[in-house]
Amino acid sequence: MLKRVYGSVDHFPGQDSPYVPYASPEPVAHLSQHKLLPILLERAEASPRTASIWFGTQVTAIRDRGSEVAVTVEHASARSERHKRTIVCSHLVAADGANSRVRDWLELPMEGDACLQNLINIHFFSKDLAQQLSKRPAMLYFCFNRATVAVIVAHSLADGEFVAQVPFFPPLQDLGDFSKTAAADIVRAAAGSDVEVEVCSVRRWAMSAQVASRFHKGRVFLAGDAAHRFPPAGGFGMNTGIQDAHNLAWKLAAVHTGAASEELLETYGGERRPVAEANTLLSVSNYEDALRVPRALGLDPRAANLASAVISPLRSVVPRGVASSALEAVLSLGRAAADASIPLLGDLKEKALERLFAEDQTLRLQFPAEDLGFSYRLDRSMASSKEAGAKPGRHLRGGYVPSTEPGARLPHCELQPIGAGVPVVASRPEWIFANAIREAAQEADAGGQNLEPSGGGATLSTIDVVAACGLRPLLIIGPGHMAQRWASLALSIHRLGYPVQVLQILDRPGGAASGELPSHTAVARAVDVSSTWAASRGVSENGAVLVRPDGHVAWRWNALGPAEGADLPRRLAAMFGRVAHMQPGAP
């Protein structure tokens, strides 16, 4: 890390900021799980809807009774006494990790490769190493030398916090071989310097590429690593898990508040599992890309694993230490052969590395198309003829193209509200802006952003508006002459029990649009200050886009006629797993 550098890859070419304005109001961030969890906990504890959060508690049994789930939990008291109790709930979400016990109890098998590679994770702090790396900052450092092979993840150079990932070969090696002292020596060998190291933890894990056969059974749902296990290449594990929660949360809330039928929950696995399958394939592909560099140096993990498999049977005839020493001798020969400083041979290896870096054939870290461009497949009867998005076997290696294709994530567009500064009245549509601006301002304060555009006035994203609507679907209409008819249709549907919030996005303020609605109508209005909505909305100025509470597009229409007037309530009913019993037609 601190000696010879064979190459580096800039994963943000041409960017001087972590923000990608066309894609999201939020910046790209490297946020490890142990940093995210305290943030989630703080928000959960601050929420008035949070019931209780228990630590030191584990689930020991579950029983799905058909109409409810009985969960037996065991927790420790202040005196380390174990206490059991049974909790009865309507639904259970199991986010209990890669080795989920709930998944095993449900007998939901994992499909795919259970072990691509065994690894040791060394979590450590080193201000000394961080200071010396400040001249060549990076998120990932791939270290290959005669002493060790390791990938060092820099979680925070400012804090000097790192994680080292080291190949591990059981049964010839076990966790006991990696004491904190031995782990610190590995870190120093990777650094190439006698830096000060404080090892916090050492643990073993198996890199998998698996997806659960089903994401729910009865009233129990799997989410996160309990539902899918990926190689870490690309950061898809936590991102996909967060997407699971995002998809399931609004559906559970809608069912529990009576806004939706239980049938809505049946869509969870159908929507999320194909995305998880696609991300599994992409993670494996990205992992293989990461291996191009060590292979160019002459280090092939397959050869090391083969050596371990060949030597392992010797344990039955020779002491374990002898077999382990034989493995270490083979690994040492491989590391020595990979030394790019060897004359002539080293030159060839350096040229091979230069070619890999120049042709972008190594590990990628940014995946906007996969992170934001995946699309849910709607019910077949409601599906678009053009199914976009992440599908099993398809890698979206291009850039993210914002789209309102049904099933896609609503494109980000910067809006300036009209009339949001007036006193908030519950019956007025401006409440969605008041809520959205308040939350956006809180996020901006935390991230040091500025919500004031050059033209003055607070701005927010279309994504913020969706979040502020809660469980209400959002109907986005344009500046065309049919805007009033769309608003009237939404109001008539609202009166019949299908509440929908209407947002009119204008190209410019001041009545220039033929269909700009007056401020007294039950429609929130905003100006597209980024001039991007017209290009990404996918419909004419007389059309409309219907958005689910999770920000994914439910449907879109290019204009409003009798057929569209009858279709809107049908789409709203389908969104909540219900059947539409009225056909109000277009006003």
What's this model, at a glance?
GO terms for molecular function: FAD binding; oxidoreductase activity, acting on paired donors, with incorporation or reduction of molecular oxygen, NAD(P)H as one donor, and incorporation of one atom of oxygen. Pfam families: FAD_binding_3, Rng_hyd_C. The chain contains 16 helices and 19 strands.
Computed CA radius of gyration, to the nearest angstrom? 27 Å
What fold name goes in the CATH topology slot of the domain at 408-443 and 455-580?
Glutaredoxin
Sheet with the most strands?
7 strands, mixed
Low-confidence stretches: 380-397, 421-428, 447-455, 581-587
Gross morphology: globular
Q: What fraction of the residues are assigned to beta strands by DSSP? A: 15-25%
CATH class of the domain at 408-443 and 455-580, please? Alpha Beta
Q: Which helices and strands occur, and which strands form pairs?
A:
Blueprint: H1 33-46, E1 57-64, E2 69-76, E3 82-89, E4 92-94, H2 101-106, E5 110-125, H3 127-133, E6 140-144, E7 149-156, E8 161-167, H4 180-191, E9 198-212, E10 216-217, E11 220-222, E12 228-229, H5 236-256, H6 267-290, H7 292-296, H8 301-311, H9 320-337, H10 345-358, H11 368-372, E13 414-418, H12 431-447, E14 460-461, H13 462-468, E15 474-477, H14 483-495, E16 501-506, E17 524-528, H15 533-536, E18 544-547, E19 553-557, H16 562-575
Helix pairs in contact: 5-6, 8-9, 12-13
